[in-house]
Amino acid sequence: MLSNMHRCLLIPEVLMEIGEFLAEKETEGLGEESDINVNEVDARSVLAFSLTCRAFCGPGLDILWRHLEDIRPLAFAFAGKIDLILAKGDGPGEENEGQECVKLSLTRVPGPSEWGIFHSYSRRVKRLSFGPDFGPLYNTSPSLLAELAAYHPPEFLLPNLSCLAWYYTAAAHFPLLSLLVSPALTSITVMIDQDVNATKLWDILRLSAPALQDVSVSIYELTPSSTTYDSFSQAIRSWPNLSSLQLEESSELFPIPNDDLVYLAQCAKLRELRFAIHSNSITSNIGSSLSNSHFQSLKHLNVQVKCPATLDFAIRMVKSIRPGNLTSLGLESAYPCPSSCFKEFMEAATIHRNLTSLSLRMTFESHDVTRRNPNSYVVAETIAPALKLTVLENFSLFGIPLHLTRDMLEKMAQSWPHIKSLTCCEWGAEERNSTLLSLTDLEVLAAGCQHLRDVWITYKTVFPEDRRLPIRRTSDLELHLDMRYSRIDEPMKTAVYLTNLFPRIKVSGFGSPDLLGRLQSAIELMKEVRSQERQYCA
């Protein structure tokens, strides 16, 4: 077949494009309700493409192996050359102590030819998600990775790995992380618990991954030490192409020291930043030094504040960014902010008219203080400045006591014609006998927000018997319900209402599994009734 192909078709890039097109083409027409796994369709199609001729074999294998959800498939590359055995042993971690689990192991040390087979696959891996699973091979991957690394020649196990997601948080597994970090790595997501020395993490990334561009780290360490900060400072300065930095510490964000924040402000390629402002070391010098020449490429900003001084700095920071640059902005407050501060932050956000995502979140600690004051509601006018953001697609209010009037909802629907996702959830709503956004408010949103696809609301509304049925919409909606304080006793009435608004609605939620299950069953029943009605009318 090769002799009959034009030489232009034998260019590797062209062959790869053919494989990519085939994978995408095969998944077209598969609706969300299909029980066919899209990844399985991709794999079958690309495998058939690879077996067509030798020219397609390489590109096809590249597509099949570029993204792995686990390290185990690479071990099976030895199949036929080395046997793999399944042995039982104690499960790793305190939660599995004394429990039997399966251990995957090689029966002998691979030879050069067998490593050659292994490398023919491992060099194709570009992305790896490495974390615990709960199947029959529970947690076999860490021991298998350690065994492969022990036998492997003195070179990188995955030499071309560019994206790594590490979800083994236990300290016992942390040493294995260094086995997967290589100079080719450009993106990493890491989660580690408080027993892991965070200083070692930053040192590993600094010394072994100089090409990192996207860094997301969740450190469950409540009080970072000075050595941790020193190591962090050295690490970010070793990544000249850093474009995304997301830092989380326990339930809060990781505080960035002032000197490091000034450095990041001058990084020409930084596009995304998620961090907490140091609550005890903000100085006016930093705020005054920020100007439109800083954060020139920043598109996504999420900042956590812990006191009035840090909120004031966050507002100045938003104002200092070149107008129009930001497309995503989030504020998390770890203390009870007054309404005037929220409004000032909103006004600062409106200079960025290209914002498509705006999020305000109040943490548990701050809300525990706020909810004791019944007069601490944030009035609807507080978010009025956000109505100027006419291209907004995602708007989120989480844990904030807010009264939304029907008039305000109508203004939101008119001002945000492109809105796709809306979140309005409040902590402690049962104590104030209030709600942010009820099911009946969906009628207002359904009438004006033609692109609405995703809604989080507090589920507390009881529908009157004489409630009129709204006009049907043909679009889909994913509705997430906060059902912890629900008082609805008639799921069928709710299902009738929702399926009239959104005939293809999908509902999920938390807080009351029994009520959620009854509501989901009622909605599926109403969908079937609607379907039979349409067939009868046809």
TrEMBL record:
<dbReference type="InterPro" id="IPR032675">
    <property type="entry name" value="LRR_dom_sf"/>
</dbReference>
<protein>
    <recommendedName>
        <fullName>F-box domain-containing protein</fullName>
    </recommendedName>
</protein>
